[in-house]
Amino acid sequence: MTSSLTTAPARPQSLRQTLRDFGRPPRIVGLDIARGIAVIGMIAAHTLETSAMFVWSDPETWTALANGRPSILFALLAGISIALMTGRTQVPERSQLGSIRLRLVARGVMIFAIGLVLELLGTNIAIILTFYGIVYVVAMLFVGLRVRTLVIWAAALAVAGPALQAGLVSVSPFGFGEGTTLMLHGTYSIFVWTSLMLAGLALGRLELTRAKVAAGALAIGVAMSSIGYSVGVLWGPGEEAGWSSSVSSASSSASSSAYAAPVTPGDEVDLSGLFCEDYGDGFVSCYPPEFFDEMPEDEPIESQQRLGGSWDDYIDMVQANAPLDMMSDALLASSPHSGGTMELFGSGGLALALVGLLLLVGRGLRHALLPIAAVGSMPLTAYTTHVVVIWIVGGPGGWIDDPAFFWWLTGAVLVGCTAWALLVGRGPLERLTAYVSRRVG
């Protein structure tokens, strides 16, 4: 005997119910809040003049927190997100790794493609998404590892990676190309990001809803940050080792080595005895007299550039780069975007402490901080939106440095993401990347 049961269609959830349920498990609202803070930090970095030095007692210097640190937080959160989408606390079985890796590559390619589109807009922003996509692809090599192994890899890359990168740069004075620019000379360092991603992946394999795990992340983060910034201030190469995240890779490529010479105001430079050429476009080149003694007198300076090099030139340039000094600076540098080990400890520890704190208090603050959590529930959409708005308002190649615009744009992103999260749910670009990932895997 059989019977037929008619099931009534599920009633759409009311706005009040959606609001009440927002941020409840299986979502971890503390992570959404952290992602939202990272996005807002990016907006600040791209629309405000950030201070060079952070001083607790001086609110005018608090904008320094937006210089470099949001991208560090993004990298750590990337690893946590990868852990959550690949089994959470369960390390994938060998039989599952193939499909998981395909999905990670697909998601990484989609994020990379969105980043390329944003780069084509021609803003002065160092677009984070292309590198973010690469991190997803790199992650496929590590998703099958256990927590202890991930921590070892993260620590090894954090300590040795920056020095190795500096060494490669110092012994490759002619080594400029698209690949080396992306991986070695760009605003974002593959060693820094991989280390942070692995740290996040290890953290994400733990039970993040347990207070003990969150408190441990907070304590370890505070200790790491204290060590990193203290060592960087006492023995590091100084603030000149980094650059602003508002500047694109193309704009900073000429000085993209994390350990380049410091920038000095023109009125503090002594040009006595030098011969200078004024190109009329704001650039001036100056040369010592002996430079001209080595050139034919009947040829202009720009025609004297040698078309080829020699081993003698190479050795001279490597010696001038002082590889050991560069590697030492890489180990001790803590300034934003320096890519140094102490930046990893300082800013990375700060990011870890923030995540730990928000894991502890996030659930209790999920309604008070709902707009920030809504932004964090769709970080790819929110980040892309803010870049497009800056492009529309500032124009291609434009630059916006306006506190009023920062507050306007931040408010618009908060309101827009909150409305979308409550009325629609998942962000549009998050839906797109998830769809492609599912189709591939």
From TrEMBL:
InterPro entries according to UniProt: Bact_Transport_Assoc (IPR052529), HGSNAT_cat (IPR012429)
Origin superkingdom: Bacteria
UniProt keyword RNA-binding, yes or no: no
Domain Heparan-alpha-glucosaminide N-acetyltransferase catalytic, first and last residues per copy: 27-210
Keywords: Membrane, Transmembrane, Transmembrane helix
A Pfam entry, by short name: HGSNAT_cat
Transmembrane annotation, as ranges: 28-48, 68-88, 100-118, 124-143, 150-176, 182-203, 215-235, 344-361, 368-393, 405-424
UniProt protein name: Putative membrane protein
Species of the source: Agrococcus casei LMG 22410
